[in-house]
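Per-record layout

source: Paenibacillus anaericanus
name: MBL fold metallo-hydrolase
length: 209
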Amino acid sequence: MMLKIETFALGPLQTNAYLLRGEDESKAVIIDPGTNPGSLIRRIEGLEIEAIVLTHAHFDHIGGVDEIRKLKGCPVYLHALESDWLTTPKLNGSLMWPDATPPVMTDPAEYDLAEGQRLKLIGHEFTVYHTPGHSPGSVSLLCGNDLFGGDVLFRLGVGRTDLPGGREADLYNSIRSKLFRLDDEVKVYPGHGPKTTIGYEKANNPYVR
């Protein structure tokens, strides 16, 4: 059964939040519910949210976590290297852009994500790849031929590495040694901007050719 994927560009940075459903369309998973999540919250009325899964914990990817987890009573998954970012505005970057966001804080994640982990949610299996560089705990999640990569790989671009915890060498290593080893047909759903494919980026991305 194919994954049903809906995209919501949220907040001042137009961060992509993804609403995923399987065969039972009454159950869903949310990846990266960002700031100003009103459109997403209206869409999930009547849905059971099995989990919120975070590719990383920068403010523009977590701004809607607190409201949605309280509304739906769902657990949050996040890599352990960013476990204290949800509770700490200085770490998640929300203090750096006061014009874009108030300080963002919520409770810690219920579950850690780790390299090689397999999550069984909404009748599908998601494989976790630890892909640091944009942030130390960045992960990418592969479900079939769909990859949810956060701010690691974009269409003709890569994630920035000048934020706290970013490291350029790690980013390029994550892309080359993990993401570019996936099948060319794998569709990449990034944290910002349009989707792409692994094959297209291997052939055309000027940053990692």
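summary: The first strand starts at residue 4 and ends at 10. The mean pLDDT is 97.
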